[in-house]
Amino acid sequence: MSPVRHHRSRRLTAAITAALAVTAGTLAAAPAALATTTVVSAPAAAAEVIPFPLGSEIVSAGATGFLTRNTAGEYRWTRLADGTSTVVASQAPVLAGASDVLVTTTGDRVLRVQDMATGAAPADIDLKALADGTHTAFGAVGTTVLTSVTTPAGAVELHLVGSAADGPVSNRPVTGLPAGAGSFTLASAAPGTALVGFRADGKSRFAVIDLATNAATETYENPHPSALSPLAAVSATHVAWVESQSTGNYETVVVTDRTTGAVQRFAAQYSKGVRIGLTGSWLVHGTYRNGQSAFEAKSLATDPAKQVLAHATSLATAPDGTLLVRGGSLTEGEGEGLYRVAADTDGGIIRQLVARTGEPTEVVMKGHNIPQVLDLDKNQGVVPFTIDVSRAASVDLRLNPGSSPVCGDYWMSAWSGSGSTAGPGSVTMTWDGSYAYPDGGDFSYGPAENGTWTWCVTMHPADGVGPSVEKMGTFTVAHKPHPHDYSDNGSPDPLIVDGAGALQSLDADYDPSSGRAGFYGSRQAVRGTGWNIYDRFTVPGNLGGNAEPDVVTRDRSGGLWLYPSSGTSAQLGSRKKIGTNWGVYDKINGTADMTGDGKPDLLATDKSGNLWLYPGTGNIDAPLGDRRKIGGGWGVYNQIAATGNIAGAPAGDLVARDAAGVLWLYLGKGDGTFASRVRIGGGWNEYTRFIALGDVTRDGRGDLLVSYPNAEVWGGESGYVYESTGDWRTPFKPRREAYTPGSRGDVAVF
Known about the structure:
By secondary structure, this protein is mainly beta. 3% of the residues lie in helices and 47% in strands. The protein has one helix and 62 strands. The chain has a six-stranded mixed β-sheet with strand order 1-2-26-25-24-23, with no helix packed on it.
């Protein structure tokens, strides 16, 4: 042993001894969720805590170092003195137990025995040279290799094989095993002792092997071996193993006194594989308490149990009888790593952090992609939220409008998503930009409104290690203004004047995953009653200069009225008269910008078939400029809809249906005029209403809704949505069924 390594070993031993003395009999209060006391952590100087190899489990422990194996099958020896680690094998197993000696494979059943503490010349053992049968190595304790031997006669024996450097190979059969023993495994080891699992007479058994006398000094039967927890433990005074229970969601740890034969049983309440170990008069094992994982110590003489760690995934017995446990602590500053668990001279037990991975034990949200501002006008309002977690967990994400100081439960959330990971990684949940309260009711679903939203992430550790963890934050939904949006949520809202003269609005609801559009929300009052005095209605956009759209109506005496947006969602300001003698017009259509000045305009066809353009001014007191004639012959059409830009032209477009049911497209040029009409379909005379709401399908282009009264659905009219393509040659995609707004008794839908 080098002087540096020797000095470090003495410091570590001194630290443990001092900690044992300081903390003997002293217990800290456990968290309320665990009905147990907690083992006090022995302090360790920062310089004495070395790195633990990431993604690895401990295989064996010596006086000067420990052996680990990672998920790729790489074995690594790490020195306790300074944390230096060396790869000793990859893929091929390394045999070791309670010692600094490692046994590696260098060829076909050729073993190399090497002392990692002294650095002495290794000794090689060629198992093929042993003439008494075929030897297969399955374990090692120090320089002793345990082999399962198939004799030339076909019998199976347990042998102990050893060699010193440049010395002869020893080959000793183990005595004292029952006839027919086979299927040997090394279950646990202590200096000079091996606990071997084997099968005999169809039963699972354990034998304590004295390596000095090559004899099985004790045998034990395990009538209900656990497939999840094949490991066992041995100490100078006890042996322990895990039995599977036929009922209940737990396993039992059985501990037998090697001197008296007295048996104790402890319910582990654990179903994922119980890690067990023995140190002094203490049993340590994994368990569950109140839904959380725990790794606890149970005195074989007194109660109660004491929580050692939050969890453990592997452990090994060191030559001094202490345990090195790969696990994690929820104590601040500790986390995941390797802990030494030791019994003290006064009957207590402590733990000390020996090596750390730098990872937290509790589940941690390592990152997320939730931005501060969400533009739901992009990607049809679909937003993938990705949550990065530090360990296997199920993840719930809940969204609620407004700024909330606490996370709401599922039944109070406007939207929720969930997912899980099998280990450290990411969970992605996709929001479609809408809300739907699970308890239903009026206004319980629809597109997300502009403003502040609260997000809440709850991470539930899959293995029960530590409590569930919540993280919260806010983001802002920011739709740009839309020309037919009265609810400030980016979706167009059709307006309805019902048979009683009440003006109401619905909210367009589009599901990007299915491509279905509809208007399922309850009607919301916009501006009271009395609207049946008007015979023409249109939504031109923001004629008055506000962000929200206005409403223009004509009364039966030919007066034209503007209801300006009030800047408040779903409300209109007091009406203003903006024209007279509009009774000469048969059709009035609000449009997008036709003239290229950024302001919406108004179109009207008179009873002679002339088409007139009224340019918008943006001035609320005089919102329309002087009219100018831009076409004739429009009297052949019985339906005209100002769809906005549906075919890629610079300005808003029109579609018009003639008496024969032919649909024509007029592309806006951007100067207040239209290109020559293009025939885009026939058979459109089956529809009773044409409703140009703007962008229903969230792709940035205007769409066309049509309805017919032949098949009523929920009191409304069945119909279709024609989604625009942006291509003037085929401006609409094939129709899709939609539950269009309005019913037979309504005065108008616009």
